[in-house]
Amino acid sequence: MATTTTTTSTFPRLLLQHAGQRPDAPALREKEYGIWQTLSWSALAVLVRELAHGLAAAGMRRGDHLVVIGENRPRLYAAMLAAQSLGAVPVPLYQDAVAAELAFPLNNAEVAFAIVEDQEQVDKLLEIRPGCPLLARIWYDDPRGLRHYDEPGLAALDALREDGRRHAAELPRYVDEQIEQIQPRDVAALFFTSGTTGHPKGVVHTHLSLIDRALAGMRFDRLTEREEVLAYLPPAWVGQNIFSYAQWLAIGYVVNCPESASTVEIDLKEIGPSYYFAPPRVFEGLLTRVTIRMEDASAPKRWLYERCMALARRVGPALMDGQPVALADRLKYALGNLLIYGPLRNTLGLSRVRVAYTAGEAIGPDLFSFYRSIGVNLKQLYGSTETAVFVCLQPDDQARSDTVGVPIEGVEIRLADSGEIYIRSPGLLKGYYKNEAATAEVLDAEGWFRTGDAGFVDKAGHLKIIDRAKDVGRTKAGAMFAPKYVENKLKFFPHIKEAVAFGDGREQVCAFINIDFDAVGNWAERRNLPYAGYTDLAQKPEVYALIADCVAKVNADLARDELLAGSQISRFLVLHKELDADDGELTRTRKVRRGAIADKYGVLIDALYDGRASQYIETAVKFEDGRSGVVSADLRIVDVPTYPAVRSAA
Fold this sequence. Notes:
- By secondary structure, the protein is of the alpha/beta class.
- The chain has three domains: 228 residues, 3-Layer(aba) Sandwich (Rossmann fold); 189 residues, Rossmann fold (3-Layer(aba) Sandwich); 167 residues, ANL, C-terminal domain (GMP Synthetase, Chain A, domain 3, 2-Layer Sandwich), CATH 3.30.300.
- The chain has 21 helices and 29 strands.
- It has a five-stranded parallel sheet with strand order 4-3-5-6-7, with helices on both faces.
- Strand 17 and strand 18 form a beta hairpin.
- The protein is globular and about 80 Å long.
């Protein structure tokens, strides 16, 4: 049970603990062919034991690395537990990474063993195998399309289980003996960072660091084994890993794996999770679809929705925070809950959510307020791969869009003179794998971790993040320039999907903007504005006017911020293509690769600052089916008004 879990445990012991105390309780569910299949704790323990014996028979030993690539699948989770049962280290990698991106982590971690989901992942590994000489064994979970593959060391996961059963018959105590030897401070997992400025770094975490933070989060939000979680984000991302692996094993709740990426919304409604995590872009997408639906609804429905939402915005957050609300407003809200808010939460799949978190990027105040207004306990957290996620969390009655919460149990925060945030906590990384120089840059002798983020603690004890410390610069006039802060303000608008701001050392701030194709497409269709695809839509004069209005509102907002009033945007252009990880412009976690974008689109940056009204560009792209091509366009560049800084009263 969750109450018996301690930081002296390890992940394999937690599994055996649940299997012994709650053998028939559900541990994992997976939707297959439209039907939810349940795996109990006892059945999971049997599966893990078979896989561990199989890996041992294949030659895996303590300290070896096992690469795991795929969507959230019960047997892939079991594979990670099997490796940990032998004292080996699972290394989850992004399933949407192209083959070339997998070569560095495989060679850096000296990987000899890999367990992957399906044919797509097998093909990637076979493609790069000549350059990864240590990769000897590959097992796959889904055999579709792989029947006629004849590659040395390639086999089905079922064959590994069969090998495991034979090994167990010969050495029945082998896995148990290995589990007994594992200590909390032993390495439990290796996560590769997104690599915004170069090769990704391997972040080494122990059983202790991950379990300690999992338990700290559990106590903060009073989580129990009765929670339901939907695991739909990449398992290679530490955020998904902490919610659906570390906390799952520490607490013992149920993790549900969707059938596919295309069924996540349907599966979300069917499961009705009580504990939910999503980056802001997911919450933005859900709201965008609601907005589009309401725009297409009948006039009476739109009227009712708008009236109810006006009430919700006025009193909903106060109700969520436990503040006093007039009886008349409470009654009106209860009626609105019956007619609008309850059905809306059900449509979004959030009807049973008790705790919902968002992190990774700033979330717009209107978006944040919307969810709390309709009764979803949406909060923000702060953390990173190196800190095992849980550093700051927002209490239920102190959720705000402009902070990331208060330091939780075990966390100390220190601010450098430059504003950079330093953290000390039991959840810190052990180090970067085979990179002592990088480790020394971020971890000092006293155990303080240098986050690279700039921010401050407000009077209420909440941490506020401004930007990455290395990205905060100055304009030529000496005004502070925080690009991420500006970009996030732009992305708060539903019509803007991505933005990249420039201004360090320059006379003015300029920006590239990506429109949200779905939101702007719906906006265009309602105005009978024809378009022939993203590139055509992005360059419409009407779309430029729409985006210019958003930029002007951001400038007006920045003018009220004495510190960042000099970051107002003077000129912008709408890019002819969406920024894409496959094109090297974003990381797999959708973080902007500033250096790569500056190199790739240097001609556009020059055009922004040379005062040109347009600039022609051709850009090589990779399509989803693997083909390459070129997208070209003559991009318009427009000026937008900036405003004098508004000085606060003395």
